Amino acid sequence: MAMGTRQDEQPLLWIATSDLPTAPGHPFYARLNTVLDAAGFDAFVEAECRRFYAAVMGRPGLAPGRYFRLLLLGYFEGLGSERGIAWRAADSLAIRRFLHLGLEDGTPDHSTISRTRRLIDIETHRAVFTWVQTQLVAHGLLRGQTVAVDATTLEANAAMRSIVRRDTGETYQAYLTQLAEASGITTPTREALARFDRRRKKKSSNQEWTHPVDPDAKITKMKNGRTHLAHKAEHAVDVDSGAVVSVRVDGADVGDTTTVIETVVDATEQLERAGAPHRLEELIADKGYHSNRTLIDLHALDVRPYIAEPDRGRRQWRDLPEAKALVYANRRRLHGARGGRLRRQRAEYVERSFAHLYETGAMRRTHLRGHQNILKRLLVHAGAFNLGLILRQLTGWGTPRGLRSRLGALTRLITRYLGLLAPRWADLPGTTPLSVPVSTYTTDDLGGALPA
């Protein structure tokens, strides 16, 4: 066979459609499209988004079904930015088939995706999240009787060095320079200011400082010990199936006991809109959610709590005597066999949703600003997580990575079996040994195009 060489060729003016490159499609996204098309996803989102588009005038915009598929792609492919989503859509033929784009169609730019996100309001994104929950109910995967609640921090798309004082608008750098000069440091350098700032006891607070571009980002200490601007994401998860029932975004400086009641109310409304077979009756949470007022409010909502109790020593009930019986009843439930089992389920299911949405889903550091924009992405990400539960019930894998790992295990099993049979085949009369070692086969030899 002769070696081919690269030549500078003039682009063809016309090309036959039979000469265009084709791809078999990704098996995961093909099955996901089958589920969405069977449930009428495109017709639903087009009806919900019709009021955001002009009837006859204007340039054709990004179709609603294609826009929400792009956001689903961000979750399944682990792409946190809209630039990354646009690049992945333009790079993969299999993703084009998932988006219902032909080879003659151009893929949407990242600015088109962001403009469509700003155009469509948050209630429409929430309606898509609710639509996915109705599919969970139809497949028998959502009960809603027992819900676990927990919160985590998301790193904001804002830098600490850009914060300004609320009263004067002075930057943090200028503020540090004044303090350093007042302490006797003349013409302080950047390194000297950093050392001076580390030695200070009281540094910055959200009452004094804010970010000029993203005021929703709050100063907080992350889990790794760094101080950063961040947001707080709170999940309510059904412990019977692991499905995400409610997603909320608040300031990182807002305590858990302040937001838990709003999350319970939102989860109750979501279950009613989705047509869940049960109402919310039980709540599981860690000790950060325990307070007298929380137990009183949950009792008023007719929700039975299983909230871990911190060690507060001997309690006094003069201020809130009505909380005494509720605290003791919650304590008895926690020490029972069911209480221990529910606490283990809370740690398993809620942390799993955090890992999928924020670690592998690449939303731990947000590329958006403002709670409204972040919540739009989180609602679609949570909907994609719930769609993964449906696909796991139908096929056994809920993400492209899960499919790849299963194919990898199958390939290893086949190659091992072929390796055991290879010596026997070589001993048969009229046969020759295998020309290619069986260990060289990969998962790409099974099923065509697989994700890299």
From TrEMBL:
Residues 197-216 are annotated as: Disordered. GO terms for molecular function: DNA binding; transposase activity. Residues 216-387 form the Transposase IS4-like domain. It comes from the Bacteria. Pfam families: DDE_Tnp_1 (PF01609), DUF772 (PF05598). Residues 25-118 form the Transposase InsH N-terminal domain. GO terms for biological process: DNA transposition. InterPro entries: Transposase_11 (IPR002559), Transposase_InsH_N (IPR008490). This is Transposase DDE domain protein. It comes from Luteitalea pratensis.
